[in-house]
Amino acid sequence: MYEMHFGMSMSGAVLNTINTRLDARTVTVLLRHSGSKLIFVDPTSLPLVHDALQLLPPRHPAARVIPVEDPYEKEFPPADPSTLT
């Protein structure tokens, strides 16, 4: 995902990051207003994106969903929950 911040602007596209802590209804509003044609999403957030797309109006053009796994994130072991505050 880090690389997309540079790649999108270099290609002339616009990167619109969406907070995955939002609910599906709010994500739907953001997708509708942004006119997104592609959605790059971490596989763990696919259910949220799916739910948001289902809430779009019937005539709204469907965005293409592209799951992206970041291998960098897999290099680190899970954090000990007792150390998180």
UniProtKB/TrEMBL annotation:
Concerning its family, UniProt says: Belongs to the ATP-dependent AMP-binding enzyme family.
Organism per entry: Eragrostis curvula (weeping love grass)
GO terms of molecular function: ligase activity
Q: Keyword Protein biosynthesis: yes or no?
A: no
Domain of life the protein comes from: Eukaryota
Keywords (alphabetical) are:
Ligase
Full protein name:
AMP-dependent synthetase/ligase domain-containing protein
